[in-house]
Each structure stands twice: as structure tokens, then as C-alpha cells.
Amino acid sequence: MKKLIKLSLTLMFWASTTLERVLKFIIFPTEKPTDDSPEGLYWLSGNDPVIRLLSPGPQLKIGLNWGSSQVYKARKYSHISLPDLATKTLITAYPKIEEQAGNYPLLSLAGLIEEDAFSQLTTQAKGIIGELNRTHGCRLSLARIGHFLEHAFARLEGEDSPSAMLHFGFMSDKPNTRVHYTHAPTSRLEASYQHLCKDLMRHIGRDINFPPARLENEQGGLGTPFCPLDETVRKLAEDLIYAVKSHKPSPPFTLSNVIEFHKHYAIYTATFIAFSTGFRAIRDPSFLEEDIDELTGLAIIYDKDRSDHYNSRLVWIPKTCIDQLRHYRQHLMAIYRYFHLMCPEVFTLVKKHEGSGWPLNLFYFDEDRAGIKPLSPGILHSELEQLHNYHLPVNANRHYLKGRLLTSGCSPEIIEAYLGHWCVGQEPWNCLSGLHPLDYREELTKHLPKIITRDGWTPMEGFSP
Fold first, then answer.
1. Contact 142, 19 (CB under 8 A)
2. Cα separation of 397 and 399, whole Å?
3. Can you tell me the distance from the alpha carbon of 266 to that of 331, in angstroms, rounded to the nearest whole number?
């Protein structure tokens, strides 16, 4: 029994999981897991044990019907290669464990059945841990052993709590640790895990080594299936820019060719805003000028709000995007001045907001009746799909920005505030928050402009008769 407890505590620590989960692990000898293989301890050739953990990721309402080649592949499992120290511990407890492996759970090594094993082993494990606490003056517990690496992993640079939960196959409903927009490449997770373990062991005077990757963890990632590839976003920006340039009208101007140009220009502007601000796919991603402080670049987004404005959030808009908003307003005013008699709705739209409140509304012309309709997420999705072969949901920008900002080294707390995620008592913008808006902006300025520039978004002038 003590051997099994030693083995279980070892796996709990290195897999950062619970005793109950470990006891259900299946042991497989020299068998490479497939996509349908269960959780367990896999002994590959050369005595290299690998822990396989199921990690289903976020529970999404829709699936990806098209565009699978445009996103990072999302796996449903994580593989944790154990260091030589852990392997030695396992073999010490069960010298020929890889030979005893078979299609049965771990607890069978002690001749136990599942119905009574968990309570028995839990009681004995608590007794052993209690003795360690009394002998060494520590405060160990099963929960602390099982969650230590997960919590330490979440504090690593370039990682956060959702990434840690995905790596260890642990889900949480806490709103400040949202997994929904997280895509974590398995190669990055594995590298972070090995760095953490080596650093931890170095502090206690032990050097550890990991075996070469045997399960091709470098392919794919964990989490959301809607995170666009870098190449997908760059190609989208390139195609949208080409469409704007190729449809720019020349004299003599007609309502028809200006309307056609406006369609492509509004789509470009809306997509530029979305990939610069993390705007939700709730309505057209437009601002009133009164909601933008052009001096600091800070702006207010009301994309998922209610009457008390609790969900309003502060964003920082990079200068290139502010320039695009300014170009769009000038474009809108040029259309109004040139065609206002033919488009009375443009006249009404602008006159209703004279002065500093001139709107930046993103809209579509209806050429048949010279009317206007908002550039809603549904219309934007349809046009991007039909005109530019972009099949992803409109809110894929949020999945993309979360991953790119995290990889760039942006603070996870800043990213969550930027995306509008918080829980009661931890709001970034309430009167008790310690987050200063200028500190928030300073952190984003280190990362967001590089992402936008690298992806090819650039300010473009509109209609100018």
C-alpha cells in the first residue's frame, strides 16, 4: 500500500492533479497513444514514461464547420514527459512497473478495487503527509501537492492561469481565469513546464533532465479551436488592403462606384478596429469621437453592456488605428458633402451629431433605395467569407489577440482587462482598483503596435473628391 501511495504522490506532483484522478490512470507498456486513448501512464521505449491528461478546452456553442486550415489545430489532450528524477522514483517504488503494465488502473498494482481504494488510500496518504509535516515543520496537504505546479506554471512569464489549466487538464468556472479565448501551443507549454521543473529542482540542489519529445507535442495546441493562424490574419489584411486600393473611385465619381468603394473601405476599417481593440462581435465596432481621448489613445467600449455601464471597459487604441478612424470620418464627411442629396440617410446621420460628436458609425449602403444599414457582425462575417475566403467567426480577433499578447509577454491581468474579463470585487476600473489607466496603456504600448504592424494593418485614406 505504501508503495502505491508513494507512486501516486509522485504522479500527483508532476502532473499537478488529484489523487482520485491518478488512481484511475491506466498503465500502458511501450504503447504510443492515439487520439482516442484514455488518460494514463504510458511507458514508451527506452523507459521514458509520459503522462497523458485529457484537456477538452472551452465548452463552445458552435463548432468549426469551415476554415480549419485557417486556425491553429486544437488538441483535446496534453502529454507531460516526466524527468529522470520522477522516473527513478517510480521504478524505486515498483522496480518492474513497465513490465507489469496493462489495461488496468493504477490502483490494481496494490490489488485494490475502485470502490474502496480511494477512501483507503486517501486516509493513509493523509497520515503519511501528517507525519512529514510534524517531522519537518511544513504544511503539506493533498490539495497543495496536487496544485503546486499548476499555480507556479500560471505565474511564469508568457503563461497564465488558463494556459496552466489546459496543460494539466484542469477546468475552472472562475471568471478571472477564462479559458474561452486561450490557445496554448503544446510546444510552448512543454518548454515552460520543463523550465519550471528544472528551476524548482535547482533551488533544492538537484539537477534533472527530460527525455527527448516522443509524442510530437510541437504540433497543435490546447484550448480554443478558433484562434487564426498568423498567416491567416496577415493574408486577410493583405486582401482587404488590395480590395480597398483596387476599388478606389476616380473622376467622374458616380454614386454606384463610391458605394462599392465604401463597402470595401468599411469592411477594412471594421476589421482593423477589431484586430486592434478586441471589440466583441455584438454590433458594428464603431466609436463616437467623444469616447476617444486622442491625446492618450484611451477609449471606452460599450460592446457588451447594460444600463448601469458595469461592463464598459477601457481600451487603448494604437495610433495607426486612431489614424484609420480619422480617415474613416473624413471619408464619411466627403460622401455626405458630395452625395447628400442622393443619400438622405447620410445627411440625417451626420446632422444628428454635428460638431465634436460626429459619429464613426460603420454602415452599409443599400444601393437600391440609397438607404443605410449598420455593418453588423452577421453582415461582416458574410462579406469576409464571400469576398475574402475568411471562414472564421467574427470574434476570432479576440482569440487571436489573447494568444499574441500573451506570447509577446504582456501581463495576463492587463490582457483580461483589455478583453473585458473580471469578477465581482476585482474590476480593473472601479474606484478601489490599483490599476492606473496610464500604466495600463504603457503595458499595451509595448506589445500591441508590434502585433498590428507585423500583421500588415496600416491607415488608408478613403473617398476624397
1. yes
2. 6
3. 10
Task: Indicate the domain borders of the chain.
Answer: 2-223, 230-455
Mean pLDDT to the nearest integer, 122-139: 91
Reduced DSSP (H G I as helix, E B as strand, rest coil) percent helix, strand, coil of the chain, to 5: 50, 10, 40
Taking CA atoms, 385 is separated from 247, 353, 401, in Å, by 18, 33, 20
Q: Which fold is adopted by the domain 230-455? A: hpI Integrase; Chain A (1.10.443)
Average pLDDT estimate for 2-11? 86
Q: Which residue in 345, 458, 102, 67 sits closest to 228, CA to CA?
A: 67
Question: Helix H segments across 186-284?
Answer: 186-203, 230-246, 255-277
Which cell goes with 55? 484537456
d(CA 174, CA 178): 7
Give one DSSP letter per residue of 61-78, joined into a string: SS---S-GGGB--EESEE
Q: What does the block give as the cell for 225?
A: 479551436
The answer, as to whether pTM is greater than 0.85, is yes
Single-letter residue type at 215:
L
How confident is the model over 197-255, as pLDDT tens digits?
A: 999 999 999 999 998 765 555 568 999 999 999 999 999 999 999 999 999 998 888 88
pLDDT for 59 beyond 80: no
List the alpha helices (DSSP H) in 109-141. Answer: 114-136
SS3 207: coil
